[in-house]
Amino acid sequence: MPRFYVDFVLSPDSVVELPDNVVHHLNVLRVKNTEEIVLFNGNGKAYPALPEVLEKRRASVRILREEATDNESPLNITLVQAVSAAERMDFTLQKSVELGVARRYPPQSAWISLCRKAWNWAWQKFARSSANAVSSA
Q1: 3-class SS at 10?
Q2: Within its chain, how far is the Cα of 10 from the centroid?
Q3: Beta strands in the chain (DSSP E)
Q4: What does the alpha-carbon distance between residue 19 and residue 4 come to, in Å, rounded to a whole number?
């Protein structure tokens, strides 16, 4: 069952419009109106839903229920990442999220201190996109 991250509050028995990136994934996966999907928003719960409207550029779903989830890895992995070129740094962050790294530490230097906000933003971006990609596979 495909899982998708959304950045808004979810509640059972409500109908929600899905963001463009999720609509795109639904189209690529060729999800039908009869197939359940799962939405999550980072609050530790999953929300199974059934599509009500599935169009090329728009989709809405009815949230069926709220379920507790336990998706955390039993491994406690820590990543210490040296500074690398932008594309390599992005690739490393993306793969570490997919592998379930629990903690990450950038090296302590003046340059990385200036970029800490950008580094954390990239980490969150890859966490969301990887969650969608991994759960769709």
Answers
A1: coil
A2: 15
A3: 3-5, 15-17, 37-40, 45-54, 59-63, 67-68, 78-80, 103-105
A4: 10
Residue 49 is predicted with a pLDDT of 95
Report helix, strand or coil for 17.
strand
Residue environment code for 84-114, b if the CB has 16+ CB neighbours within 10 A, otherwise e: eeeeebeebbbebbeeebeebebeeeeebee
Nearest to 38 by CA among 2, 74, 88: 2
Sign of the dihedral through C-alpha 12, 18, 23, 25: negative
- What Cα–Cα distance (Å) separates residue 4 from each residue in 1, 21, 34, 91, 120? 10, 9, 17, 21, 21
* Beta-sheet pairing, 37-40 with 45-54: antiparallel
Percentage with pLDDT > 90 across the chain: 40
The sign of the CA dihedral 28, 33, 35, 38 is: positive
pLDDT in tens, 25-74: 999 999 998 999 999 988 889 999 999 999 999 999 999 999 988 777 78
According to DSSP, the residues that pair with 83 across neighbouring strands are none
